Amino acid sequence: MSGILTIDREKLVTQAKQIQGGTPTIAVVKNNAYNFGLELAVRAFLEAGITAFATTSLKEAETIRKITDDSMVFLLNPTYEFDFVKSLDLDMTLPSLEYYKKYYEELKGINVHMEYAGLFNRSGFESFSEVEEVLNHQLTLDENERFIIRGAWCHFGYADEFDGVYETERKNWLDFISHFKKLDMELEYVHSQNTASFSRDGLLDGHTHTRLGIGLYGSKPYSGLNDDLFIQTFDLYSKVVQIRNMDEDMPMGYGGSFVADRKTKVAVVDIGYGDGILRKRAAYDCLINGKRYPIVTLMMSHMIVEVDEEVSINDKVYIYHPEMRLDEYTFKGVGANSEQLATFNYNTLTKEIIHDS
Ligand SMILES: Cc1ncc(COP(=O)(O)O)c(C=O)c1O
Fold this sequence. Notes:
about 350 residues, alpha/beta, TIM Barrel, 2 domains, six-stranded antiparallel barrel, 12 helices, 18 strands
């Protein structure tokens, strides 16, 4: 059977509605919508009232545009496919002064959002004086040769950490956008806040939108937040295919990866790292009939769990569940929420959507 990933569409819509709380939101749907499925997520988020989407990929932008012809679709990555961007009426990042100097002619008529590098510094303008150079150069062009400045944005790299660096990056960015105001420039999209920043601060001054990823899908960006604000929107389970009785010192698995330290019982479950379960996740527990049991070994297509008399063949073994949240394992150090999601292998897992309208 291998694993079953069950996504609850109704919960996804509810979560997307509740996290926004009425704040205009750009939904980050890159990497196949955090591996939930691009089309499923875009349609669910549209139903939740979202009309702006961001991705890194042209292919995904095209898919989004096919689903919704009046939403804003923002390309987070610099692109060189200018005709494609125009033909799909996409918005795109303007990632640096160097890029502008090289491509300003191709950018005519395109909606751009000026990117600030900040401390994240993956790309973006270093300072507002660089932006001014661009603005001044645009004024030397005929109006029909110019691009359309529709937004400004940056990405926070420290919003889920509490060591004071976030406050600095936030301050630098707020200083940066204050210059648009001084020039009397009203931008339609000013966005910087991921789930962590929005959870901490609400919508920041001078912003028009949040730009949320993981919170829309139902996981907490840092620990200590209330479970009710982040609905676990999916389950992942497989089933017990065998129960084996083990004597003390009996080995099991490759190279005896599990050796019983007493007479015990183990369940063989047909899900493994080949299905996308991270080895670090297998250092913890799983949920069978509402009770937690330790995973003791992970193989490509199997997982061994130490169990008791209450567990039988065919019982469901949950890796993720509302009582066994994805973010619990993030905070235990298994990997980022998105990292745990990204490894799900749809060539071997079965994906089921429930409460699909
Ligand atoms: C540029 C950018 N904006 C927003 C997000 C959303 O962040 P989160 O999933 O933490 O809400 C991401 C996620 O990686 C991102 O790369």
